[in-house]
Each structure stands twice: as C-alpha cells, then as structure tokens.
C-alpha cells in the first residue's frame, strides 16, 4: 500500500507531529510506503527527510492559493498512490480533495478542529472525501450535527509516542526561565490565538496572586495574538508574573516541571498539549469544550470548567494550587489514563483500518 500524506503546516505543532507518528507507525507496523507532500521549507519536511521518507515540497499560500490544485494533482500523478490522506487545512482540505477527485484516487481527510462551518460548506467540502477521520468524538459530533452521515465519519484519537518524554530537571528549568525555587508554575501550552483563551487566565491572575503570590505563568507558543496579550498584561500589572517563552522544541521534556497546566480554550479538537501534560503526570484545568472532556476526565486527571467562565476557572485553579496532595493524585491518574486511552499503536491501527476498508471497497 502506498499513501500520499498532505500536511501543509509550516511548524511541527500538534497536528503535524501526529502525522509523523502515523507515517512512522504505518511503515514500522504494516510496511506502508508513505510519501509526504509538505510546504517548501517546513519543519515537518525536514524532519521526515531525516527519517528517510520521500518528501515532495511545494509552495503553499493558504486557502486562496488556487495553484495548489495543480501542484497537488501533479504530486499525485508523480507518486501514483493507492490513497491520499489530507491532514491539514491551509488550503489542503479543499484543493487536496479536488485534486484527488480529479486524479481519481481515493482520499480521506483528518479533521482536528471542532469549530463549526456552515452546513453546505461542510457537506460540500467533506463530500470530496471517501472518509473523514476525526481525532475526537467531540469533533465527530460536530460534523454529524452539520449533516455528515455516521457511515462516513470515524473517530481515531490522537496519541503520543510512549517514550517521547523524559524527566524534567527542575534546577535547569528554573534557571532557564528565571524562576524562584518556590515558584508555583502555571503553564499554558497553545498557539497565541484568541480561541485558546489566554486572556481569561490573565483576567483572574491578580486575584489568584493575592492568595498565591509565588505564581508564575509561562505562555509556551507563538501567534498573532501576542501583542494583544502583552497589552492586557501591561494593563493588569502582570509583567513580573507572565512570561512568553516562544515555541520550545523540547516542550515534552519541560512538562514535568510545570505544577499545573491551564487550557481555557473556547474551542478545541482534542488538545495534544493536554495529552503531553497527562503523560508527564501534570494535573490540568481546562474548558469543557470540543474533545477536551475526552483528554481530561473531570476529577480524575484534572478539573473541567465552562468556557469563558472566569469565576469557575479561578475556583478550579485555587482548588488545585492549595492542595498539593490532590495535584499529585491527579498526576498519577493522568499517567495511567494516557497508557489506557491514547497509545500510538491504537492511532496507527485505527488509521490503517480506515485505509484497508476504503481500498477493499474500491
């Protein structure tokens, strides 16, 4: 079996990272011949070249780049795959589906976000594909509510490589981010975009600092919303409390030095950072939206709150910060939860089963 994977993201964030896991697992476990179509100069292109995979790099300028249709079709003709698997948006979801139709090659698409689109857009766009793979049941529910049939939408959860993390060195961690030895470290690991909800945490920080003056907040990630957040930080007098770290390549290793992960997102497909935190035994406070309740069981490996509810968010954070024993118990629960629910093997097998069923049907 030969599969052409299309991932046009420039960085190796959560979704693109999952593509590397899937391609490697399909090769190792099932002998699948995987080829990657990626944006020229992207991090994932370099990563998969280093691993020995065939990579085709093209120019990709987003949703309005109509030239993607011909570039993707050319790649399909060059590779001659049995199947095309589109993993990203940025134009790939529409132009990739059209190109596969044009080339008369079966195609599937992974859906990683839970934001709804209009019913006609959803039915037209995903009608280009033989199968839609969602990374959470929450996303699957959204698509079914927009008119897709249960037969054409299957959930295969995202996962993490079991040995991808290692213990964090607290001395190095605190020196790197200039933290005091008694600091209570709250991490937010997400792109700096509005829907990730950073501003809700900032709103309640002054009140939290009254009870826990040793709080330090680290925003891990990059994004266009940073300037707005910096303005809010300045207005609230939080410059000594909040730190922007940028995108950290060694983020999986750093999770173990965070006391609490907070993810106040307004919408979220699943949240790879939540899985990484749980794998390292970090308790979580997050919004009960999208696929998050599948990654965080309320009262087990974290606490869930209604989205945009700053009072509930504050109460949940206070509950965990003032109870180290509860944080530790939730951390232990989190490790067990990850081993049971989010293995890479399950994800790889799930994707391969979709491929096999589709090819058998064709």
Automatic annotation (TrEMBL):
The keyword Transferase applies. Residues 174-336 form the Glycosyl transferase family domain. Pfam families: Glyco_transf_4, Glycos_transf_1. It comes from the Bacteria. One of its GO terms (biological process) is carbohydrate derivative metabolic process. One of its GO terms (molecular function) is glycosyltransferase activity. The keyword Transferase applies. Residues 50-155 form the Glycosyltransferase subfamily 4-like N-terminal domain. SUPFAM superfamilies: UDP-Glycosyltransferase/glycogen phosphorylase. This is Glycosyl transferase. It comes from Thiosulfatimonas sediminis.
């Amino acid at each position: 079996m030969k599969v052409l994977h299309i991932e046009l993201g420039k960085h190796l964030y959560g979704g693109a990272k999952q593509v590397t896991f899937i391609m490697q697992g399909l090769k190792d476990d099932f002998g699948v011949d995987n080829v990657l179509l990626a944006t020229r100069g992207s991090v994932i292109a370099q990563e998969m070249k280093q691993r020995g995979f065939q990579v085709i790099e093209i120019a990709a300028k987003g949703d309005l780049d109509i030239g993607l249709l011909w570039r993707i079709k050319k790649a399909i003709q060059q590779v001659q795959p049995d199947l095309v698997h589109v993993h990203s948006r940025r134009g790939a979801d529409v132009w990739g589906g059209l190109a596969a139709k044009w080339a008369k090659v079966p195609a599937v698409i992974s859906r990683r976000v839970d934001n709804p689109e209009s019913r006609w857009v959803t039915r037209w766009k995903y009608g280009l594909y033989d199968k839609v793979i969602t990374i959470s049941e929450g996303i699957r529910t959204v698509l079914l509510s927009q008119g897709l049939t249960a037969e054409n939408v299957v959930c295969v959860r995202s996962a993490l490589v079991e040995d991808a993390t290692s213990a964090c060195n607290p001395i190095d961690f605190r020196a790197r981010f200039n933290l005091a030895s008694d600091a209570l470290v709250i991490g937010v690991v997400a792109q700096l975009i509005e829907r990730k909800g950073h501003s809700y945490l900032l709103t309640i920080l002054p009140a939290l600092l009254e009870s826990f003056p040793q709080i330090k907040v680290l925003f891990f990630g990059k994004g266009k919303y940073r300037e707005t957040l910096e303005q809010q930080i300045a207005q609230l007098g939080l410059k000594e409390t909040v730190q922007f770290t940028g995108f950290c390549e060694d983020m999986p290793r750093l999770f173990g030095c965070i006391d609490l992960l907070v993810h106040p997102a307004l919408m979220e497909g699943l949240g790879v950072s939540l899985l990484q935190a749980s794998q390292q035994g970090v308790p979580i406070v997050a919004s009960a939206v999208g696929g998050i309740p599948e990654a965080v069981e309320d009262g087990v490996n974290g606490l869930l709150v209604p989205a945009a509810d700053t009072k509930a968010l504050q109460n949940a954070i206070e509950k965990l910060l003032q109870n180290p024993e509860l944080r530790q118990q939730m951390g232990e629960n989190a490790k067990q939860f990850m081993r049971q629910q989010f293995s890479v093997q399950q994800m790889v097998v799930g994707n391969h089963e979709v491929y096999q069923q589709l090819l058998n049907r064709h």
